[in-house]
Amino acid sequence: MTETSRQAANPQPHPLPGQREAGALLQVKNLRVEFNTRRGTLVAIDDVSFDIAPGEVLGVVGESGAGKSITGTAIIGLLERPGRIAGGEILLSGSRIDNLPAAQMRKIRGRQIGAIFQDPLTSLNPLYTVGRQITETIEQHLPMSAAQARARAIELLGEVGIPAPERRIDHYPHQFSGGMRQRVVIALALCANPRLIIADEPTTALDVSIQAQIITLLKRLGRDHGTAVMLVTHDMGVIAETADRVAVMYAGRIVEIGPVQQVIHDPQHPYTAGLMGSIPTVGQDVERLPQIEGSMPRLNAIPAGCAFNPRCPRVFDRCRVERPHLIAANQTQAACWLHAPERRAPDAGQEWSQGAVHG
Amino acid sequence: MAEETQPSSRPSPKGQGDSTPAAGSGRPTPATGPRLASQGGAGALLEVRDLARDFDVSRPWLNRMLEGAPRQLLHAVDGVSFTINRGETLSLVGESGCGKSTVARLICGLYAPTRGSILFDGTDLAKIAVRNDMLAMRRRFQMIFQDPYASLNPRWRVERIIAEPIRSHKLIKDDRAIRKRVGELLTQVGLSPLDGEKYPHEFSGGQRQRISIARALSSNPEFLVCDEPTSALDVSVQAQILNLMKDLQREHGLTYLFISHNLAVVSHISNRVGVMYLGHIVEIAATRMLFDRPLHPYTRMLQSAIPDITMSGKARTPVAGEVPNPLDPPTGCAFNPRCPHAREKCRTTRPELLPFEGAQVACHGIHEGWVPIRMAETIPA
Questions:
Q1: What gap in Å lies between CA B342 and CA B345, rounded to an integer?
Q2: CB B380, CB B314: distance < 8 Å
Q3: Using N-to-C axis directions, what is the helix angle for A130-141 and A178-190, rounded to 10°?
Q4: CA dist., res. B338 & res. B348, Å (int)
Q5: What is the rounded end-to-end Cα distance, in angstroms, of chain A?
Q6: Of A290, B12, B73, B97, which residue is least crowded by CB atoms under 10 Å?
Q7: This prediction's pTM
């Protein structure tokens, strides 16, 4: 894998993660998303900050309900009521996009930011040919004639690996298989040459062999076009192969962010360590998988202090009262009091170390 | 397990060939060492012979009459044979549409086989004529489904859900004893006996899957068919459920048929693995053997397609093509259009599943020696 092996040779391509103000394509600062319900306000995203550089792939991982998809939808401005951005800023190339009127946001969406969703069948309109859907998007955003747009659509379909694109362009979504449909969705996301792609679980609905093809495609396109990608997934394997940096989310917050090698092989937050340990790998010979007891808290019952404290094997008094912020820890940043300057811990992963992924 | 759950007429559970319900607390826990991939043997609990199931996917009758369209059959499972020994876990892996779930449903009797036979503990399930005999047989195997949100009745309390197999098999008559037994089952799967009062919507996905497991265990089965039991769950919850399943297997000497598309999960939980492709088993071997020395080109492809979490630098081998349309499968070996080693013979003659050095594989190239055999690590990038 060229991408990660290159990274292995040069373990820190960026300065401290999360602190690159200059040159960032997307900056998210202290984002807070709330859902107003009859039973009070639920905080789905709480004080989330990160940025993505041009050409960079940022992986966002976490379990269901961690808030990773909500973060993606907030960035492309598609939060549905009763969800709303209650605080913080989202900046694209230095200008704010979180408070734009809907009409202006619609011009940015598709042109500047492309989106790929999990289920390719629901992101395509079943009543129109794929060609019509792609050319419509191209004509909407780029100054092209119908003939030019069609030529570009054929070129794009070929680029994402659809055989005989000049014939397939006139087919309807149901005439494509799952993997081919996801390629069409990727072509659709790419068609106006966006600078950022938000890919929300792009391979989850696909079989492993097709998954490998789509990942290879996403990586190649990012490289060729210099597109930044925010890859939202629960699959650590996909992140390990694709991302440059990774943000781990838990109960609406980022608990750890850093270069992918460090987060996977030397996790600094006990949650990341537990998560990595609980993934079975081929060839690993253990009778029991290391497991994190319990489950993620519901949004209406997030514990005081660190949200992970009831499940954490290394919890101490401070965790139960004070909420940790991201603290520089080794080569990543972790929201964990173990890394507070006054109390340095050597290895957050030691409690889970039996059968962990170092192999 | 509680004593009162045992019907009084039950004989000694030691005999392998007896067709009366065995088991419960007295059943000896089988040795859980490494097992050979060899078929049959005295320890076989389930034997499947040449199992096949077709689905009629023809257009409606009127269309066929008017348009002259022929009947169309989908061969979802086409000649599958394997055995599962007592106390072991056999996994079936493959991509969507390969027929693995259909095999699970055939074994549980949710579909009737088109051809072939299923022998449970030496008894052919199709030859049981007396309804009560069939009921007694059914008690001995249960199923755990993929989606814990769809497999529990939302209007029933958990206690009633778990007690349903006990009531329908009339294992315990007394309501208070049933309640006690449900409490024990809930404790066994890591929930509280008080949870029996709640409804399924009050539980998370992982907890619901624990309830499904408790329900499956409530009739004291010997054999569980698990159809993707963890694929709807998050990884940390998946680890909890896999650990629970292994603990229960050790405690009760359970035998599992485990259906999954996730090779890493399969390598963790199973003793033997069968790889399916378009309705056929293409390779079946002991887990270590299958992962250390994959024989069939499709097994190799699946294995190299696993995302590499250790980031050892191994590249996924991108495989061209997709699973062909099962309505119009290729002639000869079903994998030949995607196989890098395919020759003329592969396009004309279907390979048989034959023994090869401790495993069984259906590949002309392996048996005739023109597909090189490599250890998994040496697959070039």
A1: 8
A2: no
A3: 10
A4: 15
A5: 17
A6: B12
A7: 0.80
Enumerate the residues of chain B whose CB falls inside 8 A of the CB of residue A207. Answer: 95-96, 261, 323
Out of A180, A207, A260, closest to residue B261 by CB: A207
Strand, coil or helix: B94:
coil
Q: In chain B, what are the domain boundaries?
A: 7-34+45-140+261-368
Cα distances from B332 to residues A259, B106, B223, B349, B352, in angstroms, run: 48, 25, 35, 4, 10
Q: Give the class (CATH, top level) of B7-34+45-140+261-368.
A: alpha beta
Interface contact flag, B264 A5, Cβ < 8 Å: no
Contact residues, A window 266-285, toward B, CB-based 8 Å cutoff: 274-275, 278-284
What is the enclosing helix (H) or strand (E) of B102?
Answer: helix B100-107
Answer for the pair A260, B259: CB distance below 8 angstroms, yes or no. Answer: no
**Helices of type H across B36-174:** 61-67, 100-107, 131-138, 158-168
Q: Report angle CA B63, B65, B67 to the nearest 5 degrees.
A: 60
Question: What is residue B3's predicted lDDT score, i.e. its pLDDT?
Answer: 39
Neighboring chain B residues of A290 at a CB cutoff of 8 Å: 239
pLDDT band at A7 (very low <50, low <70, confident <90, very high): very low
Q: Is B313 within 8 Å of A264 when comparing Cβ atoms?
A: no
> How many whole angstroms separate alpha carbon A215 and alpha carbon A237?
11
Instruction: Tell whether ipTM is more than 0.85.
Output: no
Say if A346 is an interface residue toward chain B (CB within 8 Å). Answer: no
Is the distance from CB of B114 to CB of B74 less than 8 angstroms? no
Interaxial angle between packed helices A178-190 and A208-225, expressed in degrees from 0 to 180 and rounded to the nearest 10: 10
Provide the residue count of chain B: 381
